[in-house]
Design brief:
Helices cover 36% and strands 19% of the residues. It is of the alpha+beta class and 617 residues long. The strands form four sheets. Strands 1-6-5-4-7-3-2-8-9 form a nine-stranded mixed sheet, with helices on one face. Strands 10-11-14-12-13 form a five-stranded mixed sheet, sandwiched between helices. The protein has a five-stranded mixed sheet with strand order 15-17-16-19-18. The protein starts with 6 loop residues before the first strand and ends with a helix. The protein binds adenosine-5'-diphosphate and magnesium ion.
Amino acid sequence: MATPQKETLGFQAEVKQLLDLMIHSLYSNKEIFLREIVSNASDAADKLRFEALASNALYDGDPELKIRVAVDKAARTLTVSDNGIGMSRDEVIANIGTIARSGTREFFQSLTGDQAKDARLIGQFGVGFYSAFIVADRVTLVTRRAGLPASEAVRWECDMSKDAAAYSIEPAQKAGRGTDVTLHLREGEDELLDEFRLRSIIHKYSDHIGIPIFVGEEKANQASALWTRPKSEITEEQYVEFYRHVGHDFDAPLAWTHNRVEGRQEYIQLLYIPSRAPFDLWSREHRHGLKLYVRRVFIMDDAEQLLPGYLRFVRGVVDSNDLPLNVSREILQQSRDIDAIRAGCTKRVLDLLDGLDAEKYAQFWREFGRVLKEGPAEDAANKARLAKLLRFSSTRTDAEEETVSLADYVSRMKPGQDKIYYVTAETFAAAKGSPHLEIFRKRGIEVLLLHDRVDEWLVASLTEFEGKALASVARGDIDLSKVEGADPDPDWQVGEHAEVLRSLKEALGERVKDVRLSRRLHESPSCLVADEHEMGGNLARILKAAGQKVPLAKPILEINPGHAIVKRLQPGDARFADWAGLLYDQALLAEGGQLEDPAGFVKRTNELMLGLGQSPR
Ligand SMILES: Nc1ncnc2c1ncn2[C@@H]1O[C@H](COP(=O)(O)OP(=O)(O)O)[C@@H](O)[C@H]1O
Ligand SMILES: [Mg+2]
């Protein structure tokens, strides 16, 4: 077989831009490159240990996993070597040659131009390896996959001083398995040739790494897995650095919880809540879940079975004493032991969220509130706990930021009020301006303004809070007669309007289920409401947009008998049908719906306006 010769391959177009940005925004904290290279070496050791469970021969007489940092002062190079899993040629191209495998476009879209913010995004983007270019202009990687012979090693090189848009890859010889990453330092970076300096960087950022890191002949870290150490012996900085390693995040975490659980299942959990949502939280390729270890041996990344989906933003480690070492994703899916661990992890995360101070919780909610809202539908057992954690916008402040808890709402309920009222709409503005709120605003009754798509699912599963039903202001009959400060009954009688209601219903035909007088409206002439047990307009629109079949539920048109337009409706009028259509279309628009015939609406409106101008006063 012909060995492939040296080849030069191109990066994606954006890579040069990405690297420049990274070098710029991270330069002030440049020593973190070592943390990133060491973190990869440690991951490589984990992966080897895992693969060796099935095939012990992979150790090939060299079972002591370690990392070495060596300097060559004459050549001005720094080399980080590991005897971990290594990479094949294809793996080098896939993992190193393609920066940030997925979501490049999303990433560039989320850049803001603000250096501090962008530096954070870069950290999330999985460019750890490329941080080497902060201090080096040329990086050489020589690697040999465990199990492959010495002659099948690969040499990769990228020289930024020449052509940053390309790298070379060629066959190489390497005596042992694993990876050597050599940094050819930039002018002015000579302090990195000092072993004492390197040891102090490692002590600061990489002390938590579970295998020894040697700088020269001296070990520079404690070399025990951080989560196995007693809490009292772990500093805050060490927790933060460990998070950066397991979470592949450059930012510090918002909070964490570390516990040794005993009982039916014995395991250690170290769970972190990130301080920012990753830019790809909603993308399908988003990596989620925790790292699973069994008796200190790494088993898998992204073990999504360990937490429910609505906690997919949590990062960290679960180390089980009981699971078998050969546990696979398939086994995890059915394992009862995993159910216990999952319940335990969920409880701890909810405890952690419960205990956050108001400021941290507000930050958490801004970043992950939308994900947590999936909780009540997914996790019935924790519904009551989750309900307490939810935050909403409300008519109390009319501010878009979600800060109102259900407990806040209940504490402000009016005497006699027995329901928690909400309105749903596609946007905040539509929710806030909804005509369904008029009577509530007039009476000073608070209404939650739900404007996330996920809110519809939330209220479908969360139907009550502490014995108070959640009720849509756009559904069924609204009866506020028992609420303190009730208006005297409006002075209208259905009888007086029976003729108008009947004629409107006739004019609107199939479009409505019924037409009735409204107890909700105060300023608007009309609104649409759903029958008590039927799907509301907003949810129907969301489902339709998602391509789902929606059962046809006709709305009820409610009209405001106090409104001038309604007052002048004359069933015998030649334009009566146009007026009826206008009341319906306006009600639909006001709740964020789409007109079936927008041009017809405009035409009718114009004709009616002209008619008004001409009519004798
Ligand atoms: N020393 C190494 N040994 C084996 N694989 C490595 C090594 N360094 C990097 N890699 C591979 O390159 C990928 C990219 O590394 P990096 O840019 O740090 O992103 P991340 O660690 O977040 O995946 C890693 O996921 C891994 O597959
Ligand atoms: Mg990395």
